[in-house]
Inverse folding.
């Protein structure tokens, strides 16, 4: 009841906001600041992920506070980990704050929710760690700096089949999350292709964002006795899921995707997430570029107590720096000019690697980092490069 | 798709259902009590549950108090919070239409959620581990966490205590009197304010116990963690017959077992697990509009 009520209110808000916009100019050419929107979940189920990306953007902003002789001002909007709220937050950034570009959001579903708004208002947006293909597909205004799920699914299927020698796999996916469902599907396809066995997936369990009890699904999975469990999904839910799996006596490896790499995954999961393996974007102990080395050094200066640098923070940094590069090449803060410059980004040196934007608006990346939780830390395991 | 399953898998699912259902039951009792007296659906109940989880988290992980001290403090603080909410948000509206009270309850719910987000951040906190309660015992292929056994015992114990308070004590008699006829009870010299405050305190205390056990089993604490349990336990209370304590326990168990057994028998439908609660609610309300045990007016709190 409460949910539908708030949904209704959100819809009403969005409706009034979009009704109010009639081709009003969003350009900030005349002022001496350039406003960049940062669109992230800062409260709710995905808050930790949003905060990590925001830290990367803010660090980059600190290092490069000006472009074209104007000050860059970050306008942060909280999308509350909620798809309905995400459209409102994006609309607010464009209509009220008149930003010339948007960075974010953590979470493919949240980014996709803003897709139509950036497209119809012709404001360029850069997804930082949203890996689902749908984020940029058919949208000329959404770009991204990370790799995509078909690639990530292949990386993890390779890991499961070749490194772990798995023959039977169980999948647990967060059905309300496009990222999780998409990644699970790409993993399934890749695994079937690798093993030549279309029945290799012995069990599939679904849950919803915010669920805390997974005992039912896991008891089913235990009965099918898989060699490995692939469980891409939000970090808290995944940590609880792994805890409950271990308590039920499931001992097989449990592997997942990039969203696991947050502190909360380890604090909530405790000793039970030891050995959990995930694919991610960046390894701070071995930055691939000079820009990466600068980023690591600056991050350590800013947060001397932190043990490792989350990959999504590095992507936040890359997104901001790539945008600055585009604004400089465009020579103006006009959204359309920025979009055109972003679309022609070639060999831009980011912290996570060299970025070239392809016709879909995606960064062409063909290598991923595999990390494992060891002694309560995300530890580098392998770099996987796959040439399509 | 129905799968064939072994006996041990089925028994394991029954254990899962029992512990989940008993947790729902514990929280549902608090809902039902408040409704029984005030005819008010206390939508803030789930958020009181959430605040209790934070109190316990702070006691153990931030102030390093021993767990038993923390538990006592948590229950007391939550009871005060519940009584405080009644004093601030519901008492001034006692003569107002019931709808105003309901809106006020929703307001309190949002206030608590946003206050918790503001004070404790939107990020999940890890609830401390209780190895004695969570280390599983393996019996012939079955895995049983001690906490899964403790939860139903606590739920039934508290239900008995509550029924005793309601049926055998003076406060309980006053509660029943207020629930039957508010104005007459007042004329008979019953201190209405005290009775209602103690109802809220007891209901919130139950939410606190529910939160402690919940967090032992599912150790993450979030500002919005009370929303879904609150909604489910409200449904459990309605299924059992809102206002009826035994009904709340029955409703909680029905809900817990149905959710888990649906996952067990229809694995492909696991994503619709939350829908089960609503489907059961609709079916039961179609045939028994007052809930399963709701008809016997005498048993109402």
């Amino acid at each position: 009841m409460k949910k539908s009520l708030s949904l209704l209110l959100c819809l009403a808000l969005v409706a009034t906001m979009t009704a109010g916009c009639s081709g009003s100019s969003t350009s900030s050419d005349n002022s001496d600041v350039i406003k960049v929107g940062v669109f992230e979940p800062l409260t709710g189920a995905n808050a930790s992920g949003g905060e990590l990306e925001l830290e990367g953007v803010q660090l980059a902003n600190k290092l490069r506070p000006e472009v074209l002789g104007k000050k860059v001002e970050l306008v942060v909007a909280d999308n509350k980990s909620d798809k309905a709220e995400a459209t409102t937050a994006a609309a607010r950034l464009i209509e009220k704050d008149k930003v010339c570009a948007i960075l974010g959001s953590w979470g493919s579903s949240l980014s996709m929710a803003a897709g139509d708004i950036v497209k119809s208002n012709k404001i360029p947006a850069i997804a930082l760690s949203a890996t689902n293909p749908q984020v940029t597909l058919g949208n000329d205004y959404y770009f991204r700096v990370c790799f995509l799920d078909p690639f990530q699914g292949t990386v993890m299927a390779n890991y499961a089949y070749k490194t772990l020698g798995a023959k039977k796999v169980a999948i647990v996916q967060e059905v309300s999350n496009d990222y999780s469902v998409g990644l699970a599907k790409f993993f399934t396809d890749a695994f079937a292709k690798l093993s030549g066995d279309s029945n290799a997936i012995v069990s599939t369990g679904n849950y919803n964002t915010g669920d805390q009890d997974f005992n039912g699904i896991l008891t089913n999975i235990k009965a099918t006795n898989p060699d490995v469990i692939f469980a891409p999904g939000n970090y808290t839910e995944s940590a609880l899921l792994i805890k409950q799996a271990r308590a039920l006596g499931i001992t097989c490896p449990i592997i997942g995707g990039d969203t696991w790499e947050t502190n909360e995954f380890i604090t909530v999961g405790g000793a039970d997430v030891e050995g959990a393996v995930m694919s991610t974007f960046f390894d701070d102990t071995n930055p691939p570029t000079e820009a990466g080395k600068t980023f690591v050094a600056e991050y350590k200066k800013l947060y001397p107590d932190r043990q490792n640098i989350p990959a999504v923070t590095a992507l936040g940094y890359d997104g901001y720096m790539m945008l600055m590069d585009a604004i400089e090449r465009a020579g103006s803060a006009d959204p359309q000019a920025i979009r055109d410059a972003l679309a022609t980004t070639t060999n831009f040196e980011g912290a996570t690697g060299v970025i070239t934007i392809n016709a879909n608006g995606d960064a062409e990346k063909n290598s991923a980092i595999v990390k494992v939780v060891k002694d309560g830390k995300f530890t580098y395991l392998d770099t996987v490069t796959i040439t399509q | 798709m129905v799968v064939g399953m072994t006996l041990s898998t089925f028994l394991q699912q029954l254990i899962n259902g029992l512990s989940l259902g008993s947790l729902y039951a514990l929280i549902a009792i608090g809902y039902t009590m408040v409704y029984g007296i005030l005819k008010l659906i206390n939508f803030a109940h789930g958020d009181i549950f959430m605040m209790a989880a934070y109190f316990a988290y702070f006691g153990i992980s931030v102030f390093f108090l021993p767990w038993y001290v923390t538990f006592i403090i948590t229950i007391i603080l939550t009871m005060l919070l519940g009584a405080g909410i009644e004093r601030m948000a519901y008492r001034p509206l006692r003569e107002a239409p019931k709808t105003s009270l309901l809106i006020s309850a929703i307001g309190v719910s949002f206030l608590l959620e946003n206050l918790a987000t503001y004070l404790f951040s939107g990020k999940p906190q890890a609830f401390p581990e209780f190895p004695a309660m969570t280390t599983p015992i393996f019996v012939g292929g079955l895995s049983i966490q001690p906490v899964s056994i403790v939860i139903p015992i606590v739920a039934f114990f508290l239900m008995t205590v509550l029924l005793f308070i309601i049926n055998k004590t003076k406060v309980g008699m006053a509660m029943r009197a207020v629930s039957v006829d508010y104005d007459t009870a007042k004329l008979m010299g019953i201190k209405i304010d005290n009775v209602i405050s103690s109802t809220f305190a007891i209901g919130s205390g139950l939410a606190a116990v529910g939160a402690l056990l919940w967090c032992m089993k599912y150790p993450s604490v979030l500002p919005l963690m009370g929303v879904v349990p609150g909604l489910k336990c409200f449904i459990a209370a309605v299924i059992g017959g809102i206002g009826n304590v035994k009904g709340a326990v029955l409703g909680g168990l029905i809900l817990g077992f149905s959710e888990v057994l649906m996952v067990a028998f229809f694995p492909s439908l696991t994503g619709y697990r939350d829908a089960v609660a609503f489907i059961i609610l609709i079916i039961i309300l179609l045939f028994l509009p007052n809930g399963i045990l709701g008809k016997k007016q005498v048993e109402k709190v």
Notes: Chain A has two domains: 2-19+26-147+291-357, 150-280+369-385. Confidence is low (pLDDT under 50) at residues 16-29 of chain A.
